[in-house]
Design brief:
This is Serine protease. By secondary structure, this protein is mostly beta strands. The protein has a single domain (about 1-15, about 45-70, about 110-340), classed as Thrombin, subunit H. It has helices spanning about 25-30, 35-40, 55-60, 95, 215-220, 330-340, and strands at about 1-5, 10, 50-55, 85, 115, 125-135, 145-150, 155, 170-175, 185-195, 205-210, 225, 240, 255-260, 260-265, 270-275, 285-290, 300-310, 315-325. Strand 15 and strand 16 form a beta hairpin.
């Protein structure tokens, strides 16, 4: 028996704190002027054009060709150990209870190791906050999560974050989002494809989304990876980044280092990668990534689907996990996107 909770942040419609002002990008990350112009573009609101379900038959063949590897441009400084600091200024649970628009974190989800990410180098710059709206004002979003660049114009995020079955919708990706600003630019989403999921914890809880503005041309992107031997997932010291509502009101990126995969379940063609319970609302779509042996660069193994409590009738013990959706099906979906949109 299990209790499941998806981890996107819902919000009462209101204007985001701090607006969407973009500071001098060149001061955050020096790069060629052409790339700076690219990042300064993409501010004009644009609605989504299409969405759709993709099944295994759609991925057969074309997804087996091509690469789902990472890209780090020459001007991007790579930092294996990011600049981060202990989140001593995290809001207390008592303060959070006064904020009706932000859900309280689940029991045990606040971890002392959770850090405030300060680094804008590669690959940390590829992760950002995802805003979703089903209106036409492009300001009042209905929910938010986390996403990661996995192609020059493609992001990967959780399916339950996406606005399925909506006549009018928009999504906005802001890499390195911080305190209402877009220090490394932003882009609206043109279309998305993937496995439809609204509110379940699933091993196939992921979509790919095509951006109007190809942010990856300036910021690079992470690769994706799956293992033939599932035990290999347990040998990598993973990390994860998210924008949970209980961490600076989702205004700053949270980094969870040293994440271990404790158990793996086959589910709906994908894999549920179960870890220690550190995620909370807003972490949905946040990547579980690391540097596996035998492959180049940082690789995403899964995206956050939610948190799950499982009760065992055999020993009357309840185990709580954060669950990340991954597996070869996710990698195939990324390859499909790169073949059709890249």
């Amino acid at each position: 028996m299990s209790i499941e909770e998806c981890c996107y942040t819902k919000k009462v419609a209101r204007r985001p704190r701090g607006g969407d002002a973009i500071p001098d990008i060149s001061a955050v990350m020096p790069m060629p002027e052409e790339m700076l112009r690219l990042l300064r573009a993409g501010r004009e609101p644009r609605g989504g054009q299409s969405s759709g379900f993709i099944g295994p038959r759609d991925l057969h063949g074309v997804a087996r060709e091509g690469d789902a590897g990472p890209m780090r441009h020459a001007w991007l400084a790579q930092t294996g150990a990011p600049r981060a600091r202990a989140a001593a200024a995290e809001m207390t649970a008592s303060r959070l209870r006064d904020l009706s628009s932000i859900a309280l974190p689940p029991a045990g989800a606040m971890r002392l190791m959770r850090q405030e990410l300060l680094d804008a180098g590669y690959p940390w710059c590829t992760v950002g906050r995802v805003f979703v709206g089903i209106n036409e004002d492009y300001v009042n979003w209905t929910q938010s999560g986390t996403g990661v660049l996995i192609g020059h114009n493609i992001i990967l995020t959780a399916s339950h974050v996406a606005p399925w079955d909506q006549a009018s919708w928009w999504m906005r990706f802001v890499p390195a989002y911080r305190d209402g600003a877009a220090p490394l630019g932003q882009s609206y989403v043109q279309q998305f494809r993937g496995y439809k999921n609204s509110d379940e914890i699933k091993g196939s809880d992921y979509i790919v989304a095509k951006l109007y503005n190809p942010l990856g041309d300036a910021l690079g992107w992470m690769g994706t990876h799956s293992f033939g031997d599932e035990d290999n997932y347990k040998d990598v010291p993973w990390q994860s980044i998210g924008y949970p509502g209980d961490f600076f009101m989702a205004q700053r990126p949270a980094l969870q280092p040293f994440v271990a995969v404790e158990d793996i379940d086959d589910d709906d063609g994908g894999l549920e990668l179960e870890t220690t319970p550190f995620t909370s609302n807003g972490w949905s779509g946040g990547p579980l990534f690391g540097w596996p042996r035998g492959v180049t660069g940082p690789r995403v193994a899964g995206v956050c689907s939610g948190r799950e409590e499982e009760f065992s009738f055999w020993d009357f013990f309840t185990a709580t996990h954060s669950v990340f959706a991954g597996g070869s099906q996710m990698v195939d979906l990324v390859k499909w996107a790169m073949a059709n949109w890249g």
